[in-house]
Write a structure and sequence with these properties.
By secondary structure, the protein is an alpha/beta fold. It has 2 domains: about 200 residues, no CATH class; about 35 residues, no CATH class. Helix content is about 25%, strand content about 30%. The protein contains 3 helices and 20 strands. The strands form 3 sheets. Strands 1, 3, 4, 6, 7, 8, 11, 14, 16, 18 and 20 form an 11-stranded parallel sheet that branches. A 7-stranded parallel sheet has the order 5-2-19-17-15-12-9, with no helix packed on it. The protein has a two-stranded parallel ribbon with strand order 10-13. The protein is globular and about 50 Å long. The N terminus is likely disordered.
Length: about 280
């Protein structure tokens, strides 16, 4: 019977591996601790001056913990600014790299024009670009509609120009941009989690509904230009990837129960004269 089940499982694995990758549905990458961050840099994070940028998410940089202009830029409660390369930021960096790679292996999907003003309204799926450097022109709108996950695999750079907008019914938290080099977001409203191998610049007065996770490669900074008054965030999860007090309590309880069981078994063995555990 066991042999039969093993054969069935092996057959299932073979069938799964034989399915071409192009038929796989797009999936959101596992963000882990990075899910709590609105802004994550590698070499630095620089906030806007003046009234600053309001970030709804954790802010930090790893391995170089250089965070400047916080304040006047700031985080919305209960999120915090990590001024050191603590274990949370370190883990977020590792998780961001893993998420970047998880998006990369999903493949090119549907190839569309680099001029995002010409592609029409898009529904969920995996998209890549003819040249690999998509550009949303000044004043243009990219419309993303419907449920599901949107994955944009950008080979090179990503640019959203002044007064451009991403609109539509898609949930910003289900939109992911994997950027092979750097992203420049100067639009009025950009949506999605941007994972850039190099740097991310959020322009003067530009808003990002999602996350700016830069430097999944060797280096990369997040720079917020201008004098503030704009926002970043809206998708960050409080305490993502970090066990809560109740979770730690469950871990401790499990260990205590295991210890109590071992002591009981040893005590029973000593009373009956049998070896412990029998």
């Amino acid at each position: 019977m066991m042999r039969k089940w093993v054969q069935v499982l092996c057959a299932g694995v073979v069938v799964g591996l034989s399915v071409p990758s192009t038929t796989w549905a797009q999936v959101a990458p596992p963000l882990g601790t990075a899910a709590a961050f609105g802004v994550l840099g590698n070499s630095a994070v620089t906030g806007a001056t003046g009234t600053g940028v309001l970030v709804s998410g954790e802010v930090g940089s790893s391995p170089t913990a250089t965070v400047t202009n916080f304040p006047p830029s700031r985080t919305a409660a209960p999120f915090t600014v990590h001024i050191s390369n603590d274990f949370v930021v370190q883990q977020a960096r590792l998780d961001a790299i893993a998420a970047y790679n998880a998006l990369l292996i999903q493949g090119p999907g549907t190839v569309i024009n680099d001029n995002l003003a010409t592609v029409g309204a898009l529904t969920s799926g995996i998209y890549s670009f003819t040249v690999g450097a998509p550009d949303l022109p000044a004043g243009a709108t990219l419309t993303l509609n419907g449920g599901g996950v949107f994955v944009f695999n950008v080979a090179s750079s990503l640019t959203a120009n002044i007064n451009s907008v991403i609109a539509g019914t898609a949930n910003p938290c289900n939109i992911f941009w994997r950027v092979g080099s750097s992203a420049t977001l100067n639009g009025v409203n950009f949506r999605g989690t941007v994972l850039a191998n190099a740097s991310i610049t959020v322009g003067d007065g530009s808003n990002l509904e999602g996350r700016a996770l830069a430097g999944t490669g060797a280096t990369g900074a997040v720079t917020m230009a201008g004098s503030g008054g704009n926002t970043i965030g809206g998708c960050s999860v409080v305490g993502a990837g970090v066990p809560t007090l109740s979770e730690w309590a469950m871990v401790a309880l499990s260990l205590l129960l295991a210890l109590a069981g071992a002591v009981a078994m040893r005590s029973r063995g000593s009373k009956t004269g049998l070896p412990s555990g029998i």
